[in-house]
Amino acid sequence: MSIPVLIIGKSGTGKSTSLRNLDPDDCILIQALKKPLPFKNKWKPWDGEKKSGSVFVSDKAKTIIACIKKAKENKKSIVIIDDFQYQMGNQFMRKANEKGYQKFTDIAKDAWDIVQAVIESDDDLRVYILGHSYEDDLGENIRMKTIGKMLDDKITMEGMFSIVFRSILNDGEYFFRTKNSGCDTVKTPMGMFKKEEIPNDLAEIDAAICSYYEIGDNSKMYEKAMQLHSMVDDEDGIILKTIEKFKNNPKKLKTVINKINNIINGD
Hints:
Layout: E1 3-9, E2 27-31, E3 55-57, H1 61-69, E4 78-82, H2 84-94, H3 102-119, E5 126-135, E6 142-144, H4 150-155, E7 163-170, E8 173-177, E9 197-199, H5 202-212, H6 218-229, H7 238-245, H8 250-265
Parallel strand pairs: 1-5, 1-7, 2-3, 2-4, 4-5
Antiparallel strand pairs: 5-6, 7-8, 8-9
């Protein structure tokens, strides 16, 4: 079972910036609207032939679904879709001259298909969907912004997720809310986060999710790495520092374990 995560919020409240500490090698970023990331980075365009890079641009539902399904095959453990609002909005604008309600049905169906593909995707894959929020005039109804009434009245997109964050700006600092305010659709599993507001850092959030669901079994891998460390000469402490650096990153920690084994075996 994959881990679908929805992050909603106003524009400029730190949704895209939350990617800043993720390792691009672990991720595929699907951009519905091509735009530069709002921080200095080494995220490169995806090269399908070389199977390298991290950024893929498309707002077509079938293409996005295919990308999600191939994530693990392409050695990606994290998928980010940013900004989901434009996946719907771009399609609406392309069909702006069409009369009738069929276009709204098509837009809703495509959005539902994408989220359904996320839910049905490979085990342990984490998929973060970033989108804008809608807020009524009284601020008493804050939810994901969609197009048309079908997704709101018939589906309720947040109901397809167990984890929903809302990005906020508080005293000049950017946070994600983890608890429902009574006016929004925020929710996180019991015990996953202690604080109601956490830094907008997807690397830390992903580590917390992996720990909560025991993805990659970080604790056992860390114990294994430390056990192997005791069997090698690490006078300058570089190996130990590397183990500590990647203790919450199963993919990197596995690589460290393999390298220590090579040292032990004299390879």
